[in-house]
Amino acid sequence: MPDLCITLGRLNLKNPILVASGTFGYAREMAGAVDFAKLGGIIPKTVTQSPRKGNAPPRTVETPSGMLNAIGLDNDGIDHFIAHHLPYLRTLPTAIIANIAGKTVDEFIDMAAKVGREAPPAPLPPGGVRGGLAGLELNLSCPNVSGGLDFATDPKLIDKIVAGVRKVCPLPIIAKLTPNVTDIVPIAQAAADAGADAVSLVNTFVGMAIDWRKRKPILGNVTGGLSGPAIKPLALRLVWRVASHVRVPVIGIGGIRSIDDVMEFLVAGASAVQVGTANFFDPTVSARLVDQLTATCNDLGIASMRDIVGTLRV
Ligand SMILES: Cc1cc2nc3c(=O)[nH]c(=O)nc-3n(C[C@H](O)[C@H](O)[C@H](O)COP(=O)(O)O)c2cc1C
Prior knowledge:
Helices cover 29% and strands 20% of the residues. Helix 2 (105-116) packs parallel to helix 3 (155-168), helix 3 (155-168) runs parallel beside helix 4 (185-193) and helix 5 (232-245) runs parallel beside helix 6.
């Protein structure tokens, strides 16, 4: 059997297939459909300091090979997450990576401290893989709330948030970046310099859909974030650029739905991947990809993920 374990800074996972925030609910919704034990990790929907209603409907629209969403971080707030969702998530046989978004630097730090207080006290044995609450992803990149994108477009703000969060939260930190920038490399570098254990990219690309007959935008928020197979080539390039220029583990996200997609991201330099939009049209895809990864490694004689990650020849 190939060894699918991966290491993202201080975070060890049993395999590189995770499910992306906002596309898997708080996992309860998927119970019965998905074998959680197969997954490398689950990233529940972003939570914010206070409950948010989200944007006016319509909030999603299908586009060629993808979808636009403008959910607007609809959630019940961090206290509800800790009291209601986290106890359930902790019981699942895979790593849980909480995901938070603040409106300000201080909000990020306050929320990270709260999540940090929930971290298991025992230190991880070397090479050990932890279930339960295992990490914290910072959503620095939501395109659908005012101020949401500002964080991941400014290296100075990234530095303040990531460094501040590291001081108050003992969990491994993943900085989730936006593709909506001229150059993602300095942004990823700022996250790495400030102590992020890994960067995840990408969040959605800002786009819009129009009903020209009505002369109206289709989404209630006017614009939304594009995701799904349509963005895979764009995401792949950004992952490759960051992996080749910044010494930080990269988690690739964008349109992943098949084992070929997974292998392309790994070869481009991603140490792990997250499956997002594909969960909506095939909720069982992520668990199946783990089996297919094992089979592919066996076919190719790949013993460990080190033999495949970043092996692109240019
Ligand atoms: C309906 C929807 C809701 C999302 N909500 C969140 C969210 O709450 N937090 C977050 O970090 N990313 C969110 N995302 C972004 C995804 O996690 C992922 O980064 C993006 O969709 C690209 O991956 P994909 O093409 O595989 O979907 C959302 C995406 C979709 C489609």
